[in-house]
Structures are given as structure tokens and as C-alpha cells.
Amino acid sequence: MVPARSTGASGALDIAHRLTEICGPRFARLAGPADEAAGRAARWVAVPGGPRAAARVLRLAARHDLTVVPRGAGTKIDWGAVPERLDIMLDTGRLAGIGHQTPDRGTVEVGAGTPLRAVQATLERTGQRLALDAPSPGATVGGVLAADEAGPLRHRHGTACDQLVGLRYLDADGDLTEAGGGAAGLAQARLLCGSEGALGVLVSAVLRVQAVPATRIWVTRPVWTPLEVHDLIRAVLAARLDPAAVELDLPVSPGFRLPWDPRAVAMANHPSMTGRASTAGCASTGPTGAGSLVVLLEGGPAEVAERADRLVGLFGARSTVARSAPPWWRSYPFAPGDTALRLEVPVTDLHAAVYALRDATGGPVPVRGSAGLGVVHAALPGGMPPDRVAAVLAAVRSVLLARRGRCVVLAAPPAVRRAVDLWGEPVDLARLRAVKQHLDPGHRLSPGRLPGGL
Questions:
Q1: Which of 80, 85, 46 is nearest to 201 (CA)?
Q2: Which residues make beta-bridge pairs with 201?
Q3: pLDDT digits 0-9 by tens, 238-263
Q4: How far apart are alpha carbons 372 and 335 in whole angstroms?
Q5: What is the phi-psi region of residue 251: left when phi exceeds 0, alpha when psi lies from -120 to 50, beta otherwise?
Q6: Phi and psi torsions of 143, nearest 5°
Q7: Which stretch of DSSP H or E encloses residue 44?
Q8: What is the pLDDT at residue 276?
Q9: Which of 155, 174, 253, 304 has the smallest number of Cβ neighbours within 10 A?
Q10: What is the C-alpha separation between 315 and 222, in angstroms, rounded?
């Protein structure tokens, strides 16, 4: 059989017809302009109505040597590396629903295509929740797991993968596998976390649930420098306040511009300019105004109030207390078109990571995230030249390497994505290669999306 990758219009229509037979007339089609992953366009879109139909799509792909990239709500479809090929975009939107709940075990089974906010709304009616607050609006449970995405609540509860009890997924040949029910099964299930659909197509997940906290209080302290943040976080963690989240927001003043002209930067940094205002057209690299360090406290009314009083005493008179989150809470500092970074470093070295980023870029950049864990996100302007981004990454990674940290490019403009190493130092690439070879030896699932081009 001739591989479908080389078929003409008649072959493409034949594949579309077969997908229509599997998924139904309204749920299979030739791909359109919006059907892409990190800039790689798909050829067909299939929206199977259940696990069996999804398995048939994968078997069709195997017969015709087609590649498959799963897609949930598409909120993170541009994260990661560009797929080497993208034949079928497998939309999981119909693999949705909230299934079996086990009250005695405190778990719930959720279809991979179910929006996280729909799960939370359903559980809230019974006074329960998933301790998940992924920043991507509209994200599905499968998408959160596939990207190992987490929000502020990761400080106490970990990521979605940390709360995983079991998983059902389809392998590259369309065989349904259940993983969980013990240490070995759980380890197998967690292999798929963060795999961007390159190791299997998620069908459903069993996740832990918990009671909705009776009281939630956000205590905010304005901050001006990364070193100040470092000292405050140390004090918060030492005070044993049991925070649910410790989040940092370091914005950039609206009028600030990073200086990209090398000659202007050299002039501004010349010793003769010491103590003078820059005349080279460079924006100031001094303080850009207050950021915020915010601590979320959850629990019973009396004990939360007691902990909040202690935290206010620690933060001082400039702190404020609120029963709602600040506007930037559970959101990323980057916008579409930016180069989006994730920095991971031991919390004691977070200030060094932020200073390294500022030094490498020539000025402040927006930083936001879980400062209490040393996991934050940052944004470089989309207009920054690719070679400049590469230089920034090299400088930051050299600092982080000595501190057991890493800097990952989550998303970037096409020219930047082609010019830089998205991953930096891969984590156990040999093991990842072995897992890929075991689960997807034909490299048909999201090929090239993982580190090392896997």
C-alpha cells in the first residue's frame, strides 16, 4: 500500500471518507488553516465519538503510515517543538464526561476531552474540587495532563500528574491500555504526563478530589527586587503557615522598552555613562515599580484567620488581605507571539535566575509564577531577533546549570523556534528514547514533539 503521505487529492479524499465512516459526517474533514500544531498544518481532522472510534482512527493511521497529533481545546497546541509531520489532528472533544466517583477513595474519573472548568463546576455542587487551577482558559483535563500544566495550587498539591490515580490511553496501534492501581501502574500512567501526545492518546483519567476549603484568603505584599522576594519567601516558608500557594508577579512598566540595538547598549553601558541618563535612546533598566508576592491560605475560618494575622505581622504594614485573588492570579505573563519561558530552579536560587534573565536581556522582563517552588514563567517580546533570544537563553542557562535549574521555551515565533534549543539540558534523554521506542516504535504519535526530536 502506498503511504498516504504521498497520495494526491483522490487519496486525501479517500482518507477523509474513511474518517467520516469512523467518526460521523459532521466529525471528520479535510483540515483548515486553524488546524495546526506549532505552525505545522494538519491534513485531516477527526473527532471520534468514543474510545473505540478513536482506536479505529489510530488503526487507520497505522495502516496508511499516517502521523497523529491529539488536540484538546487547543490552548497549548503551540507549546513545544514543531511536529515533524502532522497528518491527522485527533480532536478529543467528544472523549468527554464525568464518570465514576468513588467517595470512599476520594476519586473521580474524567474523560480526557472534558474542560477542567466543567469538572470543577460539577464537583462544586457536592462541595468538592480538583486541586487543579491550570492557567490556560478552557483547557481540557487531557490537555492539562499532556502538558503537565499546573497553576498556583501546585505549591501544596503538586501538578495534575501528582494527583493522578489511574489513566486510560490508546497506544499508537489503537490498543486501549489501563494504567494505575499500584506503584508500577501509576509510574506507567505518569510516563504520559508532559508527553504532548507523543506516547499515547489520553482517553480518561482518575484523579483525586477533595473538599472545597471553607475559607480562602489572599495576603499580598508589594515587592521591588528579586532579592527582597527571596528574603520574604524564606520567612514565609520558615513560619510554617502551610500556604496553599505562594505566587509572584513582577511586571514591567508600560513605558519600558528593552534595548535591542547592540551599539546603543554598548554606549549606555560604557564607563563614561556612569551616573548619567542614557543618551543612546535606551530605556532605563532601573526599578520598574512594585510587583506583588501573594500567599493563599486555605482551611477553616478560625485557623485561616490566625495564620493570616501571623503572615500580616511578618509582611508588615504594606501588606493587604482579600477574599478574592488579584487580577493576574492564575495567568501567564506572556501573550500570543511572545517567546514564552519556564524557569525551574531551587527556590533559594530564584532571585539569581531572575537577575540572570534581566542581565541577559538588558532590562526587566515580566515574570510570574509559583515563587514558593522556584517555578516561574517569563516573556520575551515577539519582536526580539532570534539570535538575540539564543544569546539570552545561553546566558540564563549557564547560570541555572550551576544551580540545578533549567529554562525551557514553551512557545515562540517560528523564526525563534527554528533558531534556538527549546529544551536546554534534556532530562534523561536515553530513558525517554527507550519509552518512545516501546510505546510508539513507528514514531506516528506527535513525532518530534519531545526533547531530542523524539
A1: 46
A2: 170
A3: 999 999 999 999 998 765 444 443 43
A4: 24
A5: beta
A6: -65, -40
A7: strand 44-46
A8: 31
A9: 253
A10: 9
Backbone angles phi and psi of 160, in degrees to 5: -60, -35
Extended beta strands in 201-316, E state? 201-208, 210-211, 215-223, 245-250, 291-299
- How many whole angstroms separate alpha carbon 262 and alpha carbon 279? 14
Burial, 284: exposed, middle or buried (Cβ in 10 Å; 0-12, 13-18, 19+)?
middle
Residue range 324-332: mean pLDDT, rounded: 96
380 to 325, 347, 361: CA distances (angstroms): 26, 22, 8
The helix or strand, by DSSP H or E, that contains position 237, with its residue range, turns out to be: helix 226-238
Coil, strand or helix at 308: helix
Extract the C-alpha cell encoding 346. 531551587
At which residue does the C-alpha cell 519600558 appear? 256
Tell me 451's DSSP state.
G
Global confidence as pTM: 0.87
Alpha carbons 352 and 348: distance in angstroms, whole number: 9
- How far is 180 from 195, CA to CA, in rounded Å? 17
Quote the cell numbers at residue 283.
Answer: 530605556
What's the pLDDT tens digit per position in 207-226? Answer: 999 999 999 999 999 999 99
Which pLDDT value is given to residue 122? 94
CA angle 217/248/135 to nearest 5° reads 80
CB atoms closer than 10 angstroms to residue 290: 13
